[in-house]
Amino acid sequence: MTDTFTASNGMTVERDHNGDVLLDRATTPSLYMKDGTALALREFFMHEQGIWIDGESGALALLNHVPIDRRYLSIFMNGTMYGVHEPQPGEGYGSTPQHQVARRFFEAHPERKPWEDAKTGEAWEITYTTLVGPEVRKVAIRTDYNTWKTDVHDMDFDYAITSARRIWPEDAS
Description:
Layout: E1 4-6, E2 12-15, E3 21-23, E4 31-33, H1 35-48, E5 51-53, E6 60-64, E7 72-77, E8 80-85, H2 97-108, E9 123-128, E10 136-144, E11 147-149, E12 154-155, E13 161-168
Antiparallel strand pairs: 1-2, 2-3, 3-4, 5-6, 6-7, 7-8, 9-10, 9-13, 10-11, 11-12
């Protein structure tokens, strides 16, 4: 591995003997960042890609958009990848290190989408992505904790839903 990284746009990035980062040293003026600034930027760019760094263990966590009934994390730690589901209400986390990383992730990212708590028999207007083509908007009935029935097919995933609003029963307020 070389000490100088060349980005796809030709800019170079290197570290000096103190761990500080120098950008595009060949141009004048070059940009110089202390190691803490470089770390903050590195984590920012990882965040932009959906990657979260656990401050306690250094593990990387990526929230997956896979066809399952609850949020699912891929956790990379100590050279191994683990998959961990968010617990259902009333369930706890396991005691393994990867479960503790998942607990910290979900505590830091508590946002649930309204349709994730839809009850069996409720009707929702949902908009969802498909593998091919544009987004689709349909009326769907929640048939169990992770399945929606539309006029065309059953959907057994919440991850593809981009927006939804409950249309029945109507909100009492």
